[in-house]
Amino acid sequence: MRVLVTGALGFIGSALVPALEAAGHAVRGLGRGAGSLADWRQADLTRPVTLAGVCADCDAVIHLAGIAHTRASGADHGAVTVAGTRALLAEARAAGVGRFLFVSSIKAECARDAYADSRRAAEALVREAGLPSCAIVRPALVYGPGMRGNLERLLRLADHPWSLPIPRGLARRSLVHRDDLVRVLVALASRPAATATYTVTDGMPYTAREVYDAMRAGLARPAGRLALPAGLVTALARFGDGVTRWTGRSCPWDTRALAPLLESCVSADDGVWKALGMAPRHTLTQAVADMAEALRVGGGAL
Ligand SMILES: NC(=O)c1ccc[n+]([C@@H]2O[C@H](COP(=O)([O-])OP(=O)(O)OC[C@H]3O[C@@H](n4cnc5c(N)ncnc54)[C@H](OP(=O)(O)O)[C@@H]3O)[C@@H](O)[C@H]2O)c1
C-alpha cells in the first residue's frame, strides 16, 4: 500500500515510518517543515489549502499529527485536531482513500480538558466521514527512546543520587511502549475489517511513584524509601489553585501542574491485542536504559 503518515517527523511518526517501510509499504510523510522522505508533503493542518492533493494515490492514511507534550489553548487544539482532521478527511474522501486510522488518545475516555475534548470531537468526525474503512486508536501515554513531555522530565529527575519523596498511591496511568504502539498501527493499517475504537496499553497501570521507581531501577539508582503523604499533595494542589485564582498567575504547584500525580487514566482493555493475535513486548523497566541513552545522545546529560 501507499500510506500517508501525518506527523511523520514526530516521536511516534519517526518510528512508524521505518516500520511501515519494513512491512513493504510505500510511505508518504506530511509535516510543516522539510522532511527527509523521498515522498514528502509540506503542509499545515490549520491551512486546508496546503493539504490539497496530499492523499492522491494513497491507499491508507495514518493521522498522527496533533499538539502533544505542550500546553495549548482550546482554540489551538480545535484548529489542529478538529478542523485539521476535518480538512484531511475531505482530502482522503476526494482521493478515494480506502483505510483511515486516526491516532487519538486514551485521554478521550478519561479526561475533561481542551486536548481530550478535541480528541473526542475529531473521533466523531472520523466515524461520520463516510470513508470505506476507519479505525480509531487510543494510545496510553507513550514511552520509549526520544519520548517528550512529563515522562522525559520524570526520567531526568530520576537520574539523581537522592530519591524524590513522590507519594505512593494517588493516580494511576496506563502506558505503552512506542514500538508496541507502532506494531499495532502497522497491523491495523492493512486490516480494513478492523473498524472499532482500540485502546493500546502495555497492560500494566502504573502510579507516578511506580514509574519513578522503575526509572531509578533502570538507571541503577538506589530505590528511595521516603514518600510524601498523598493527602499533602492534594492539599498543596488545592492551595495552589487558590494562589492561582488570587494572583491571576499560574502557580507552579496547582491542580493543573500536579495533574500527572492526581489524574488517573487507566484502561484494562486488551481487545486490540486479542483482535490482532499479538501481545505487548515491552515494559517500562526494561525500556529505561534505552530511554536514558537516547536522552544522553540527543543532548543534555541526564
Ligand atoms: N506521545 C504520547 O504519549 C501520545 C499518547 C497518546 C496519543 N498521542 C497522539 O499521537 C500523536 C503523535 O504524538 P507524538 O508523541 O508523536 O507527538 P509529536 O512528537 O509532538 O509529533 C506531533 C506531530 O504533529 C505535527 N503537527 C503538529 N501541528 C501540525 C499542523 N498544524 N500541521 C501539520 N502537522 C502538525 C508535527 O509536525 P511538524 O512539527 O513536523 O510540522 C509533529 O511531527 C498526537 O496526535 C498525540 O496527541 C501521543
CATH superfamily of one domain: NAD(P)-binding Rossmann-like Domain
Can you identify the CATH class of one domain?
Alpha Beta
The helix-and-strand class reads: alpha/beta
Tally the helices: what do you get? 10
Strand content: 5-15%
CATH topology of one domain: Rossmann fold
Q: How would you sum up the global shape?
A: globular
Q: Which spans have pLDDT < 50 for at least 5 consecutive residues?
A: none
- How much helix is in the residues? 25-40%
Distance between the termini: 41 Å
Order of helices and strands: EHEEEHEHEEHEEHEEHHHHH
Kindly state the number of beta strands.
Answer: 11
User: In the CATH classification, which architecture of one domain applies?
Assistant: 3-Layer(aba) Sandwich
Major β-sheet annotation: 7 strands, parallel
- Mean pLDDT, as a whole number? 93
Question: Hetero groups bound?
Answer: NADP nicotinamide-adenine-dinucleotide phosphate
Radius of gyration: 20 Å
- If strands are numbered along the chain, what order do they take across the biggest sheet? 3-2-1-4-5-6-10
